[in-house]
TrEMBL record, chain A:
Its main location: membrane. This is General L-amino acid ABC transporter membrane protein. It holds the Pfam family BPD_transp_1. The lineage of its organism: Bacteria, Pseudomonadati, Pseudomonadota, Alphaproteobacteria, Hyphomicrobiales. One of its GO terms (molecular function) is transmembrane transporter activity. Residues 176-365 form the ABC transmembrane type-1 domain.
Automatic annotation (TrEMBL), chain B:
The keyword Amino-acid biosynthesis does not apply. GO terms for biological process: amino acid transport. Residues 36-265 form the Solute-binding protein family 3/N-terminal domain. Keywords: Signal, Transport. InterPro entries: Bact_solute-bind_prot3 (IPR051455), Solute-binding_3/MltF_N (IPR001638). Coiled coil: none annotated. This is General L-amino acid-binding protein. Belongs to the bacterial solute-binding protein 3 family. It comes from Roseibium suaedae. Residues 1-25 form the signal peptide.
From TrEMBL, chain C:
PROSITE patterns: ABC_TM1. It is found in: Cell inner membrane; Cell membrane. Residues 92-384 form the ABC transmembrane type-1 domain. It comes from Roseibium suaedae. NCBIfam families: HEQRo_perm_3TM. Its main location: membrane. Pfam families: BPD_transp_1. One of its GO terms (cellular component) is ATP-binding cassette (ABC) transporter complex. GO terms for molecular function: transmembrane transporter activity. The lineage of its organism: Bacteria, Pseudomonadati, Pseudomonadota, Alphaproteobacteria, Hyphomicrobiales. This is General L-amino acid transport system permease protein. CDD domains: TM_PBP2 (cd06261). Belongs to the binding-protein-dependent transport system permease family. HisMQ subfamily. GO terms for biological process: amino acid transport. It is a multi-pass membrane protein.
């Protein structure tokens, strides 16, 4: 019964073959995601075409045909009769760059604005990075010390007859400076106000609640532009004879009240997310209302709503452009005014200015929204149920 | 639950406002006390009130504020400027935020009465005109039937357009912008056939168009626009100061007193010049000003003619001729009451 | 507050009157009322004093005075001889027009982009992502101004208009299309239209009832379409087609005749729709993602294909998550339409501003603005709340 065995045992490993070309690597990915069906293929082609039609003229205008240097409008005008298209006039932005950043702030005093910018960055960046220590000190510096110092730096300081820093009137401020002043002051002032009204809205005292609800719903129901008109046209009539406010201050009051209402709703969301046990625990420890809020509830609630606060700030930052309509020179207003300068009037000057404004706003807002998402993810871990 | 802090904060705020509610003295005393004049100007109209790249304001309207400063303080530089939109200007004056409004503002009955203002004179006689593209082939405003008209909202301009087109039975479309820059840009982009504004403003804004040479100002003037400085109603002393500052500049031109020769003219034999320059009589004191107030005005700012030539006259980019704004002796209607 | 009340208000916790929470609550509320009343009193008395001193007339009497200025877009009869009140009403109607058209466009675009954002196709989802991020992070005012001046600069002037089929024209004075002019008997068609709409709703209700009881389906969509198209046509035919078209024609500087859409309206609606659609897209995406994947799988298991799954299973459930934030986007769009003032579109704020300038009645005009926007907000949120309740999950 001896039989020669006809089977064999492979003693060495078979050579590893690469996965079929069609399922791996870029091609596989493309087949799966882009060309899985006829419909999908059409979509892909349409999408690519669309992208081409959007980005091609944009890149051509902003980079390839752009004018980068020049002394005046002649650089940005196409040669007579050449029919050649001229792209973005970046030379204009370059010439006006200081005005876009500082407005008409006197040239000799611009270092003061730079100090404020630098201080703001130096305090904000460690504040924004969760792992940097000394958060409490940092917050006090940022929210209390910084505003006081920058107030004197920006407006000037005169003690008695001694001019330590020459006064710079607010009409000379402009550009990014005004945008940042309005946005940062607005958000800083609206946070405490917003917390108060959020607490008021959740209060069980009917009148406190009513007042808070009316305040919040009123400001949330009207457009910011009417608030700005109100603060620039109507507010002076509310004040007693002879009492006047600086125009920038009036706008700041309007913006702060307006964003306080939105902030109140954000904070209310955070308060509602705190489990009842936290309140009960605090009370069991014998804490009264304000210690309970200040030590137990608000720290948790505010931490929860940091993304919401950042989003409100993004909204406010974008909305500062509206002050242009009431005749203030924020970044957009400054750019808008500069585009009518006879020295630089050309068909592309306006578009270039707007493109620059759009890029600045995009960088700020996109950066902040990424940060908000980052914080949200970081905070999410502790509260996932 | 905001009970503890909210009332406190509001109470504190009220305290501040209430304590500030002190009675207001006359504007002249106020101005002397604070050491400067707050002057409401436009947000940038070349020739009338316009900031240069260093932020220094120049223009015909600005010169008036500088002249008042010279009259009160002896120096033209004690002026702070508030750029105001058309919408804000009257509230700013009413609320006391500014002391003088010198912002190409048309003197009308309703503004003089129901807005609580006083017009202290006319420093520029203007009229509303039309600017069109040359290639439209239009030679007269009467050919503008069916046209789109770009203009700035909140001014008498808008009403004049309506009156003009209606009275001539011409259909039209008005596109009214909030800010002058936008009017100019929209007109430049071809949104409208016609840009209508005060004639002086047309010349000033034509400079900012992409191709100024492609546009002409039509000969028709469709309205009377006496532009002048404005003060609050009910403060007669300040009203007099502003009114007579303007009159003094006109009188100085009429009498040939210029910034160059004002010192020599002090020794003039002409009694009118003597009175004007405070050598004779105490006319400055009657206004509550130093007696040499006109000397300070003319030396620092110049007479009306000098101010006109420097800011809007034929040798400036605006190249506006004196026209109605010439002195009455020269065929214009600028006529100042005498100082005596 | 109650939580603390419960905690302290135990019988043995004896405390002085100062620490009694009830007393404190009453005290602070009285204080708050006093402070609010005092602030109100100071503001009102200051204002009255200011107005009297400056000799400014007050009250709403000015609304019946003659306005005297022209308006480029009016939905109701308006002439320069109309009153200020009429001018403000024209502005209000224009605001509503922009809001309604904008909401429709923004929703359509937003839903499309939101679905595209979740597309399995990489190119499409990336494009949608870029769109959302680019639009969301640039201020609306900038976008409005951008679209407006782009429109004015990109399209030719009236003499070189772009022409579509000989009756549609696009130039920098606007978009011109033929306007139907209804003659005698046309109102019959109008009533026919209303009748057919009512009939369609009735059919839908009946069909739903029948499907619930018998499971039989009825082609409601086709029936409604047929009714709405055919009945008015029939009415017109009975009346002998009393409809003529008024075609736009180049006369002098501009086109006359036809229906004109002014460039300000086009730019404003474009900018508002695009801006809001980016936010709506994110809301839609979040809403769809909130529906659990099991729902899709179950629908597929029942044999539904991708389209019907989305339409019949996913979207109705996602709507519950979508509606509340969608409401606030609609409200935002309505409020944002006030930025029309930047590009001379005659909306409520821009015409109110003109009236304010002409009359100097700041308080009155601003109070009208606030009142109108508050009412619009309340009406929109009331409607959306009603819709939300209708869509809400009915639990057993």
């Amino acid at each position: 019964m001896s039989q020669t065995s006809t089977f064999q045992i492979r003693t060495e490993e078979a050579p590893r073959l690469p996965a079929p070309v069609a399922t791996s690597g870029f091609i596989g990915w493309a087949r799966q995601n882009l060309f899985s069906s006829a419909g999908n293929t059409i979509l892909t082609i349409l999408g690519l075409l669309l992208a081409f039609f959007i980005f091609e003229p944009l890149i051509k205008f902003a980079l390839i045909d752009a004018v980068w240097t020049g002394e005046n409008r002649d650089a940005c005008l196409a040669a007579e009769g050449s029919g050649q298209s001229v792209g973005a006039c970046w030379a204009f932005v370059k010439a006006y760059f200081p005005q876009f950043i500082y407005g008409r702030y006197p040239a000799a005093e611009i270092y003061r604005v730079n100090i404020v910018y630098a201080m703001f960055a130096a305090l904000l960046i460690p504040m924004a990075i969760p792992s940097v220590p000394f958060k409490k000190l940092n917050a006090i510096l940022l929210l209390v010390v910084f505003p006081i110092i920058s107030y004197y730096l920006l407006t000037g300081l005169v003690i008695g007859d001694a001019v330590i820093l020459p006064i710079v009137e607010t009409p000379y401020w402009g550009g990014l400076l005004v945008t940042l002043v309005i946005a940062v002051t607005g958000i800083t002032a609206s946070l405490p106000l917003g917390i108060l009204f959020a607490l008021g809205r959740r209060s069980h005292m009917p009148i406190v609640k009513l007042v808070s609800v009316i305040f919040i719903e009123f400001w949330r129901g009207v457009p910011l532009i009417t608030v700005l008109f109100m603060s620039s046209v109507m507010l002076p009539l509310f004040l007693p004879d002879g009492v006047t406010f600086d125009k920038l201050l009036r706008v700041l009051i309007g913006v702060a009240l307006f964003s306080a209402a939105y902030m109140a709703e954000v904070v209310r969301g955070g308060l509602q997310a705190i489990p009842k046990g936290q309140y009960e625990g605090a009370m069991a420890l014998g804490l009264r209302f304000w210690p309970m809020m200040g030590l137990i509830i608000l720290p948790q609630a505010l931490k929860l709503v940091i993304p919401g606060i950042v989003n409100t700030f993004i909204g406010l930052f974008k909305d500062t452009t509206l002050v242009m309509i009431v005749g203030m020179f924020d970044l957009l207003g400054q750019i808008n005014t500069s585009t009518t300068d006879p020295n630089w009037a050309s068909p592309t000057t306006g578009v270039t200015g707007y493109l620059f404004a759009a890029m600045v706003f995009f960088c700020f807002c996109f950066g902040m929204s990424r940060y908000s998402i980052f914080i949200e993810k970081k905070l999410h871990t502790g509260h996932k149920r | 639950m905001s009970k503890n802090i909210l009332p406190l904060a509001l109470g504190a705020a009220m305290g501040i406002v209430a304590s500030a509610a002190a009675a207001q003295a006359g504007t002249l005393d106020d101005v002397k006390a604070k050491g400067f004049i707050q002057c409401g100007v436009s947000q940038g109209l070349p020739g009338f009130s316009n900031p240069d790249a260093q932020g220094n304001w120049t223009g015909l309207d600005v010169d008036l504020c500088r002249a008042v400063s010279a009259a009160v303080f002896g120096t033209p530089d004690n002026v702070k400027y508030s750029p105001l939109s058309a919408k804000e200007r009257f509230t700013a004056l009413q609320s006391g935020e500014i002391d003088i409004l010198s912002r190409n503002t048309t003197w009308t009955l309703s503004r003089d009465t129901s807005l609580g203002l006083n017009f202290a004179g006319v420093n520029y006689y203007d009229g509303q005109g039309f600017m069109v593209r040359k290639d439209l082939g239009v030679a007269s405003a009467l050919e503008l039937s069916g046209a789109s008209v770009c203009t700035q909202t909140g001014t008498t301009t808008e009403l004049n357009i309506a009156d003009y087109f209606r009275s001539n039975n011409m259909p039209y479309e008005v596109v009214a912008f909030e800010k002058l820059e936008e009017v100019v840009k929209a007109y430049d982009a071809g949104r409208c056939d016609v840009f209508s504004n005060d004639a002086s403003g047309l010349y000033a804004t034509r400079l900012t168009l992409t191709n100024p040479g492609d546009h002409i100002v039509l000969p028709e003037i469709i309205s009377k626009e006496p532009l002048g400085p404005v003060v609050r109603h009910g403060d007669d002393q300040w009203f007099d100061v502003v009114k007579w500052t303007h009159n003094a500049m006109l009188n100085a031109e009429e009498l040939g007193v210029t910034s160059a020769n004002v010192e020599e003219m002090k020794s003039s034999d002409n009694p009118e010049v003597k009175r004007l320059l405070g050598v004779e009589g105490a006319f400055g004191e009657m206004l509550g000003l130093p007696n040499d107030w006109v000397v300070a005005i003319v030396k620092n700012v110049g007479n009306y003619g000098e101010s006109f030539d420097r800011n809007v006259g034929p040798n400036t980019p605006l190249a506006i001729s004196r026209g109605l704004n010439a002195l009455w002796k020269d065929g214009g209607i600028q006529y100042a009451a005498p100082i005596r | 507050m109650t939580t603390r009340d419960k905690g302290v208000a135990q019988p043995e916790a004896r405390s002085s009157l100062i620490n009694d929470p009830q007393v404190r609550a009453v005290f602070f509320q009285v204080l708050l009322v006093a402070v609010v009343a005092f602030v109100g009193y100071v503001i009102v008395s200051n204002t009255i004093a200011n107005l009297q001193r400056q000799n400014i007339a007050s009250g709403y009497g000015f609304l019946s005075n003659i306005a005297g200025f022209g308006i480029s877009l009016t939905l109701i009869d308006y002439a320069e001889t109309s009153s200020y009140g009429t001018a403000i009403l024209v502005g209000l109607l224009n605001t509503i027009l922009v809001a309604v058209v904008g909401i429709v466009c923004a929703s359509t675009l937003g839903f499309l982009i939101g679905v595209a954002r979740l597309s399995k196709n990489w190119v499409i989802s990336r494009l949608a992502y870029c769109y959302v991020e680019a639009i969301r992070n640039v201020p609306l005012l900038l976008q409005i101004v951008f679209w407006y001046f782009l429109l004015l600069n990109a399209v030719p002037n009236a003499r070189n208009s772009l022409e579509f089929g000989g009756s549609l024209f696009l130039n920098n004075r606007g978009f011109f299309l033929p306007k139907p002019v209804f003659g005698d008997g046309a109102e019959l068609a109008f009533w026919g239209l209303i009748l057919s709409v009512v009939a369609s709703i009735a059919v839908k209700v009946w069909a739903k009832k029948r499907q619930m009881s018998t499971g039989q389906q009825f082609p409601v969509g086709l029936t409604a379409l047929g009714l709405i198209v055919l009945v008015p046509l029939l009415c017109l035919a009975v009346a002998g087609f009393p409809v003529t078209f008024d075609y736009p024609a180049l006369k002098g500087f501009n086109f006359t005749g036809g229906q004109r859409v002014i460039p300000e309206l086009i730019a404003l609606v474009t900018a508002l729709s695009i801006y809001t659609s980016a936010f709506i897209a994110e809301i839609v995406r979040a809403g769809i993602q909130a529906v659990s994947h099991g729902q899709t799988e179950a629908a597929h298991a029942l044999g539904l294909r991708h389209g019907p799954t989305l339409r019949l299973v996913i979207i109705p459930q996602a709507m519950r998550v979508i509606i509340p934030p969608l409401t606030s986007q609609y409200l935002n769009l309505t409020k944002n339409s006030s930025l029309a003032v930047a590009i001379a579109f005659p909306d409520l704020v821009s015409l109110g501003g003109t009236v304010l300038n002409q009359t100097g009645q700041a308080i009155e005009v601003i109070s009208i603005w606030m009142l109108v926007y508050l009412s619009l907000s309340l009406i929109t949120s009331a409607f959306m709340n009603w819709y939300n309740q209708k869509m809400a999950l009915v639990e057993r």
